[in-house]
Backbone:
DNA sequence: TTAACATATGAACAGATGTCAATATGAACA
DNA sequence: TGTTCATATTGACATCTGTTCATATGTTAA
């Protein structure tokens, strides 16, 4: 293999159109943005969390309600709710001993509707 | 713990509002649909695939172009393209020895734009 | 303050996922 | 046909992720 300085080009034998590559590279968003975007989609990319979000479409729910609806342990639901909170997809309020969760904004509905449209084709 | 038949209720001590639970359960989509939806989002939930999709915003690209743009092995890019093909997010055509990939439809752009709006808040 | 309740957190484990190296497939052309 | 090139696939490996069990936190009421 050819070397450039100490760097070995793993893809030496590869069809690459350098002009196109440069043009596309110039337009790419920052890696950090793309990473954050992937992280957001990752949150939607688990059926347990999708089911939680769908349940919250209908009503504000407490942890116990959700555990019952999804037939999951309290612990598991709590863990997933933490992820949804961190991503700002759900918000919550306390009423005595009970925590009530609800959707944070309409982006969630829109994103999920978009996904639905795609898989329904 | 109490038992119902042979089923042990792991969540015996849990705040559950049965009426709400029943109402929400009645409105939930089929598990299969929710599973497919999660699978779709999972595809977007990887920064390599997001970067591939973003690159394809700009131009139709061959495997070598993408490998160069993302600084990844040909093998890895090919693997990810297969996943994107299976999810119908990209389409492809052959021209001699070269495979050209492009975005399959505008859902991809819309979904990603939605995600962007959310993280930009 | 103590007991009971609702939820959150930590550690550990199994299963899923992305990457690479090596190899296979398939197309073009001598 | 045989060789070269572009891409696809296979197997192995390390990392990431979701669940459970056990325990901690924080609230209410006696």
Residues:
């Amino acid at each position: 293999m050819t070397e450039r300085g100490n760097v070995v080009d793993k893809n030496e034998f590869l069809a690459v159109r350098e002009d196109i590559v440069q043009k596309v590279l110039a337009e790419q968003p920052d890696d950090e943005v793309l990473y954050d975007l992937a992280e957001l989609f990752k949150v939607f990319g688990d059926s347990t969390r999708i089911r939680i979000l769908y349940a919250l479409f209908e009503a504000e729910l407490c942890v116990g309600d959700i555990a019952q609806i999804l037939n999951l342990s309290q612990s598991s639901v709590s863990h997933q709710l933490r992820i949804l909170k961190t991503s700002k997809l759900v918000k919550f309020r306390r009423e005595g001993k009970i925590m009530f969760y609800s959707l944070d904004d309409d982006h969630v509905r829109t994103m999920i509707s978009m996904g639905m449209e795609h898989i329904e084709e």
